[in-house]
Design brief:
The chain contains 18 helices and 13 strands. The strands form two sheets. Strands 3-2-1-4-5-6-7 form a seven-stranded parallel sheet, with helices on both faces. Helix 1 crosses helix 18 and helix 3 packs parallel to helix 4. The chain is elongated, with a radius of gyration of 22 Å. The relative contact order is 0.11.
């Protein structure tokens, strides 16, 4: 039997996290499809290293703040139209839209209106389970399948009338070997002085909102537990802001920016103080008991309760459906209580063991083992293409 024909896949990512996911997916598609794969679309350096022929720089559609969105709107709208037209003008075998819902969903709608039989896959489910649930139903006509990173998302999408959704796994599942300690590192985790990770966020606004609070928590903690090693991992581009932030703290953590240093710190950390976000799942998978906190702007905090559909902002708690990791959010941020809780987590006892027991269940709930998430995602893309071809 001859090899299958080469595939032409149009793939779009609009931000760094999507570039990582897209590159992993592309690598696995090349392995799984014996006939070869051609990639074109939009993506960053990682996707281009996997063979993507870019339509334009990914940075053209990356907008992080309100002012940036408004200022860049004409360019973003132009790129949206160019992306849709590129797909329509040269028909690919399948389209994959990676995250960036404000951009990719609009492109998918334009393409589906002109090419109703072209299979379109969305990689990363939008957070319809948090807010704007109507997005699920709105997606249904435009996507053949959604690939979800979190295990509860397929049911949530189904309940809300969204497209067929397949759980493929969070990319952190492919990094467990770099997150979990060796025997020597586990011994360091239990030794003195204990290592405490300080993770106040990676965005400028997060650091500004949480910096003073984290400084107060650490001052109170070190007054009670003076023999503790504080380590603050951050991004290279945030180092100057972080150094300025900790300059006013009464105790100064060691700042690290290299990814391997960060991973090594996770493997030896006794506990952590962290901003809500993906890092809380990273910590849970690494087996690091954590106190989490988050604060949004005042107006957001006032209106959020009317729109938010979940009771927790912490990913491990959402996945486990239990309050495994303590969280202090918005009006309930309490530095004295947070410091006391961290001291107990460092010392050991029932609270520490309860967190560790809950974290141990994550592997089973998230389906760790077998194919890595990127391989599962690639299989789902090829399966979607085969199913579309069978009915067209």
């Amino acid at each position: 039997m001859s090899d299958p024909a080469p595939l032409d896949i149009f793939i779009v990512a609009g931000e760094e996290s999507g570039d990582v996911l897209g590159a992993g997916l592309m690598a696995e598609l090349k392995v799984l499809h014996a006939g070869g794969v051609r990639f074109r679309g939009v993506g960053g350096a990682r996707m281009q290293a996997q063979g993507l022929v870019p339509l334009f720089p990914m940075e053209d559609i990356t907008a992080m703040g309100f002012a940036q969105v408004i200022g860049g709107l004409p360019r973003i709208l132009r790129r949206m139209s160019e992306t849709a037209q590129a797909i329509i003008a040269q028909l690919p075998d399948i389209v994959v839209m990676v995250d960036a819902p404000d951009f990719t969903h609009r492109v998918a709608r334009k393409v589906r209106a002109r090419l109703p039989k072209l299979p379109i896959v969305k990689y990363v489910a939008p957070t319809v389970w948090v807010w704007r649930p109507g997005r699920a139903k709105a997606m249904a006509p435009d996507f053949d399948r959604v690939l979800a990173l979190l295990p509860f998302e397929p049911e949530a999408m189904h309940t809300l009338g969204g497209p067929l959704t397949t759980y493929v796994g969070h990319p952190l599942l492919g990094e467990l070997a770099t997150l979990r300690p060796s025997a020597e590192e586990a011994a360091r985790r239990a030794a003195v002085p204990p290592v405490l990770l300080v993770l106040p966020g990676s965005r400028r606004a997060e650091l500004a909102r949480l910096g003073a609070t984290f400084g107060e928590v650490l001052a109170r903690l070190t007054a009670e537990v003076p023999d503790v090693e504080l380590v603050l991992p951050t991004l290279p581009g945030r180092r100057a802001q972080v150094e300025e932030m900790v300059g006013s703290w009464p105790v100064k953590p060691r700042i690290i920016v290299e990814d391997e240093e960060k991973r090594a710190a996770f493997r030896v950390a006794r506990a952590a103080l962290a901003a809500s976000g993906t890092v809380t799942l990273e910590l849970a998978l690494a087996g690091v008991p954590t106190v989490a906190a988050y604060r949004v702007p005042w107006l957001e905090g006032r209106i959020a309760p009317f729109f938010i559909r979940v009771k927790t902002a912490i990913l491990p708690n959402l996945i486990l459906d239990e309050p495994a990791m303590p969280e202090y959010l918005q009006w309930h941020i309490d530095p004295p209580a947070m410091a006391e809780q961290l001291a107990r987590l460092i010392a050991g006892g029932a609270e520490r063991e309860a967190q560790l027991s809950a974290f141990a269940r994550l592997d089973a709930v998230m389906g760790e083992g077998g194919d890595p998430p990127s391989r599962r995602a690639a299989r789902a893309v090829l399966e979607t293409l085969a199913q579309r071809r069978a009915v067209n």
